[in-house]
Design goal:
The chain is an alpha+beta fold and 321 residues long. It has a single domain, classed as Ribonuclease Z/Hydroxyacylglutathione hydrolase-like (Metallo-beta-lactamase, Chain A, 4-Layer Sandwich). The chain is built from ten helices and 17 strands. The chain starts with a helix and ends in a 7-residue tail after the last strand.
């Protein structure tokens, strides 16, 4: 090594050492531990549909699911690499028809725990403001679908008209029912009253009766069973169809292969099972996209028949065209 090359080698070695130290320092940086904003966008014909993530709620399917056994539930969950407690998504859907901005369900607001209540922030992250929402269609009046109607004791969507089936309104908005109810049922009814009363007082709650055309391209379809007025919503534009199921089903790993499985929250479990089987069969036959409140976010996909049950094929993550 000559007297000219020796300093060059020392300089290169020093540079290599500094690069190694720099890499090590970056690798030791703190973990971020935050998720991307909870929205997913797709088109249905000319309509822009945005799925909104409210959060997750931990449930125990072996205790909640009925018309089955804990052993069978655990077996089916294990096939999907799941176990208890199961984090169940809470989803809502925003539909921009071009002339109306419609939201289906409103999340939990402050009525859930720390893993819930994200809908308002994710609505804004998706490029919309609460005051832009024209109408809100509620699948049923359980707290995880209506809690987000209020924020800090005030109406969260100041320009929106809220709509739901009159059968749900008559039961869940009855103070008499709240007074005579016990335990969890009493809490559920009181949550519904608290969430809807300001809209009722402002004359911006307008119940409908069964199958009803709401705005062009969006229709309410009666699917009574989970609650007395449970409703699914059909969104259709240019021959493309999206059906929003609400709580027609809850635990995908169990109820897709075994649609007869029901849940303790059903007001009429037999009727709920009939509605689920009907919706599953229609979706598999027609091939349209479905969305559900408790499918893993964004809760959108298609069904195909698999033996005596069904398989769920989630939508791809694609650019919006």
């Amino acid at each position: 090594m000559t007297r000219w090359t020796r300093p060059l080698c020392r300089a290169l070695a020093a540079l290599a050492g500094s690069l190694l130290l720099s890499t090590a320092a970056h690798a030791a940086g703190p973990m971020v531990k935050t998720q991307a904003p909870g929205y997913y966008r797709m088109m249905v014909g000319d309509f822009e549909v945005t799925a909104l993530f409210d959060g997750v709620i931990d449930v125990q399917p072996t205790k909640l699911l009925t018309n089955t056994t804990p052993a069978q539930v655990n077996k089916l969950m294990a096939r999907s690499f799941q176990k208890e407690p199961l984090p169940l998504s809470v989803n809502a859907y925003l539909i921009n028809t071009g002339s109306k901005l419609v939201m289906v369900d409103a999340g939990t607001g402050s009525l859930g725990g720390p893993t819930l209540g994200g809908l308002a922030a994710h609505l804004k992250a998706a490029g919309y403001q609460p005051e832009q929402v024209d109408e809100i269609y509620i699948t049923h009046l359980h707290f995880d679908h209506v809690g987000g109607l209020m924020q800090d004791g005030k109406i969260a969507f100041p320009n929106a008209v809220v709509r739901a089936d009159r059968r749900d309104a008559e039961f869940w908005l009855s103070q008499a029912n709240a007074d005579k109810a016990q335990g969890e049922a009493k809490v559920f009814i009181q949550h519904a009253i608290t969430s809807l009363k300001p809209y009722v007082d402002a004359q911006r709650f307008k119940p409908f009766d069964g199958n009803t055309d709401l705005v062009p391209g969006v229709k309410a379809v009666a699917s009574h069973g989970h609650t007395a007025g449970h409703t699914i919503y059909l969104v259709e534009s240019k021959g493309q169809k999206l059906v929003l199921w609400g709580d027609l089903m809850h635990v995908a790993a169990v109820q897709f292969p075994q649609p007869q499985v029901t849940i303790a929250f059903d007001s009429d479990s037999k009727a709920a099972a009939v509605q689920r089987k009907k919706a599953f069969a229609e979706a598999a036959k027609q091939g349209h996209v479905v969305g559900a409140a408790h499918l893993p976010f964004p809760g959108l996909g298609r069904l195909r028949t698999e033996g005596k049950g069904y398989g769920f094929v989630p939508v791809d993550y694609l650019p919006v065209k």
